[in-house]
Amino acid sequence: MEENGRLPIKMLNDRVLVQLEGAEGDRRSSGGILIPATAQVGKRLTWAKVVAIGPNVRSMQLDDRVLFNAQDRYEVEVGGTDYIMLRERDIHAVAAERLDDSPTGLYL
């Protein structure tokens, strides 16, 4: 057990633990229009930051940004912080500085 009384967590298999970047509530369009959290947006994908990965994850590293479907997720609270548990196959895209050399990479 660690000094602060919390147990360390080891991710298994192809699991990825991510944390949402900012609040899930209201958001702004590129033109500055406020879009309330209650607005229906069909099949909107969400960006999050990778905070832990299992030993079989091959396509991403810690601190990468990943794009996933917010409806296909399992939420978990660890130490008072909310995280989302995903499988590697549920992630649609990865954004990271290290991918700059990739010939098929897009700029997001």
List keywords for this structure.
108 residues, 10 Kd Chaperonin, Protein Cpn10, Chain O, six-stranded antiparallel beta sheet, two-stranded antiparallel ribbon
**Percentage beta strand:** 35-45%
Using the alpha-carbon principal axes, give the shape.
Answer: globular
* CATH superfamily membership: GroES chaperonin
CATH class: Mainly Beta
Number of domains: 1
**Order of SSEs:** EEEEEEEE
User: Mean pLDDT across all residues, rounded?
Assistant: 79
| Amino- and carboxy-terminal Cα gap | 40 Å
Tell me the helix content: under 10%
Give the tally of β-strands. 8
Structural class: mainly beta
Number of helices: 0
Using the coordinates shown, work out and report the CATH topology: 10 Kd Chaperonin, Protein Cpn10, Chain O
Task: Tell me what the structure shows.
The model has no long low-confidence stretch (mean pLDDT 79). A hairpin with a 2-residue loop joins strand 6 and strand 7. The protein contains no helices and 8 strands. It has one domain: GroES chaperonin (10 Kd Chaperonin, Protein Cpn10, Chain O), CATH 2.30.33. The protein is mainly β.
